[in-house]
Model the fold of this input.
Amino acid sequence: MGEINHDQGTAGKKDKKPHQKKLSTHIDMTPMVDLAFLLLTFFMLTTTFSKPKTMEVNMPVDPDDTTQQQKIAESLTITVLLGKNDKIVWYTGIENPTPMITNLSSTGLRKTLVEKNSKVYNNAVILRDSLSRGYLKMDEFKKRLGQIKQDKLGLIVLIKAMEDATYENLVDVLDEMAVSHIGRYAVVDITPIEIEMLAKI
Amino acid sequence: MTPMVDLAFLLVTFFMLTTKFKADEPVIVDTPSSISEIKLPDIDIMTITIAPEGKLYFNIDGKKTREQVLLKMADRYNVTITDEEVKRFSVLTSFGLPIRELKRFLPLNEEERKAIPQNGVPYDSLNNELSDWVRFSRLENPQFRIAIKGDRQSDYKTVKRVMDILQANKVNKFNLITNLEQTI
Done:
């Protein structure tokens, strides 16, 4: 393997071993380089740079005092029900709801939400556009987006899941809220009426 | 060749220093994907892992915090725990065992631990150890952010139960761990 050519020659023995060079510090570096590249490959392949991402969820808190509860317009609310086997159903209003079956594709729930939330959504799209053109800074954009999402006429979404719905569906629906720029949504308990309604479909 | 070797060593050093080996988890979960780009913080994280069969695994970071929390839990459930066990617990990662079984689990070595099935931290209303873990951890370190790491296939029933336990402990804001969605 690596050999170091020691300079064994001393001044006195010069004439005895004339073939020995005075100084030679050349080391064979090949094995070391081999090892270095082996380690490099190992670390490069095992490193994962993508850290897990997270989604923040705020749950509604029951107010201690019911007078604090805000009244909201029925026409602005939409209820999304999650059932077994990826079944997604939505309806608006409270009286005589007409449940509509949908799915999680871009033409399904997202289309409905974007249509119903068009005011906020369009504002958000314009805002995002000015961000990408460089008219707005990132923190300014976030601040303005937050304001837009709190619009009093924005859509309010109630997400209700059956016990046998999958967690993936819940995350997907929460994701749709981010896509459609819906600022006011909540994950709430499903009612027996809604369970019945889902069973009929 | 020297510049190349220099570069190679530089890269080796870089990767060696930045690599963080994955902790040994008792269960591997496949997290759902989302478009969210918020990164999970590195410290002050409490992770509740939900396996598809409804088993829960609990993890908190911080050696000192872990020691204190375990002592409080042992006190609450009348389990005598030795200093050695406390020390071993402080370097453990995620676990899914009731406190009584945890005491038997701690003195074991790596190999023996693998042989023990971890059936999750109990969270039913009769024996709600999860709630106590959450409560004591938050008392010890109020900075904790709570992350739920659920499997795609776990049902909403379990997730709901976990959320209810968290809300009962006055936690109304938590993180759901997801993968970054692949752009199609």
Observations:
- Helices of chain B lie at 2-18, 63-76, 83-90, 99-105, 110-115, 129-140, 156-168.
